[in-house]
Automatic annotation (TrEMBL):
Keywords: Membrane, Transferase, Transmembrane, Transmembrane helix. It is found in: Membrane. This is Putative colanic acid biosysnthesis UDP-glucose lipid carrier transferase. Residues 276-454 form the Bacterial sugar transferase domain. It comes from Halomonas korlensis. The keyword Mitochondrion does not apply.
Amino acid sequence: MAKNAKTLSGFGPYSHIAARTVDATAFLGGGFLAYLMRFGSLVDMVERYQWMMLSGTLLGLIVFSSCGIYRSWRGAVRVELVVRIAHAFVILAAMIFAYLYFSKTGARFSRIWLGLWLINSFVLSVGVRTLAYPILNRIRSQGRNRKDVMLVGDLESCRTALKHIRKQPSAGFDVVAVRLMDAAGCSTLEIKDCRAFDSEMDANVSTDEIWVCLPLSRGLAVEKVLRDLVHCIGNVRYLPDMQGLRLLNHDISTVAGLYLLDMSCSPMSGAARFIKALEDKILAGIALLVLSPLMLLIAIAVKLTSQGPVLYRQERTSWNGVPFQMLKFRTMPLNSESNGINWGNAMHKKTTRIGRWLRRSSLDELPQLINVLKGDMSLVGPRPERTVFVERFKHEIPGYMQKHMVHAGITGWAQVHGWRGDTDLKMRIEYDLWYIDNWSVWLDLKILFLTVWRGLFHPHAY
């Protein structure tokens, strides 16, 4: 079954060596380039700079390894790797500057050179990987450096996994077999090797990857399958449903000698709340300063193309269920909701001449930067809902009120994954709760980056 095993076994070790070689070259090359930019020549380069570059390179490789840069990124989102590398560089910079401060040797090095060294190294490291991605994708499209996968589980879970794998051929995975708990569903899957899971026949299967696709609610079945596959030499992975993933991803607290899963505990407490508030104030202030000319032009356009105020105030619910007045550029005619408020069907609502475009581009949301500075909202978080609908949805959607454990955001984890506008509200809540469970400054920066990277225009925007 593992038809690519030979190719993989020969390729894997070299990829790790290549990645470390690239980064070592980036650190050294970035240092030499920084020296040239700062001092104008590499002739008679001061020896202490050479030692600093060599020490920094070795330390950088250790930090990169500790931050997971050299783990397999097969099938991962490219932006996630860039954010992880940026995270590693921040740690590296902190360690270098801490050493220079406590050793009292900082005055012996140019601060401009140090800054340029880190920036150059980051750009080179990310740049080489960016260039390598299409090459690696081409290699995988030619049938090399691929991994065979066998799916084991129920019909719907296996169907979902199969769909995602086939949508991303560049990830380098091939589903070569499916083993279902009930073979009756095999006829609905477009795959030749599909039958019921047999603990004896499949216990020692030889394949690169085995993915167990069962919801966590079928815990006994999961345990039995994993026990049957204990002797497999390939990688065995568990793919739970979204609810199961959230359950498995909670922190563990120790109270009175007991181990407790923190199922619904806000991450926004103490230092974390202060850090996020500081992040919001700084970034929102910068964004308002940079975008103020654009916002002025939009305000003029709104005023010239329709009657009424430029800004539209709407009551929404944010942190701790507290209502606030959310600001938007007005995109609908006056008294558009005189007949009542309806959720959804936004594409059929009346808009002003530029209102449709403002919604499609999400530029009508820019005044919410003011809400962020006031403390009503955050740059990143679950999108706020109208108070009248909160009362309705909290009875219809499990876990809905948990989204209010953090400040509502202008953009969020659900939005950058396409769950915005008239899309499945339950899926949006799943992504919102995942964000709350996994919050970090780096996740916020990643979401902001993805918001710009994937474009403001979106088919579900309104």
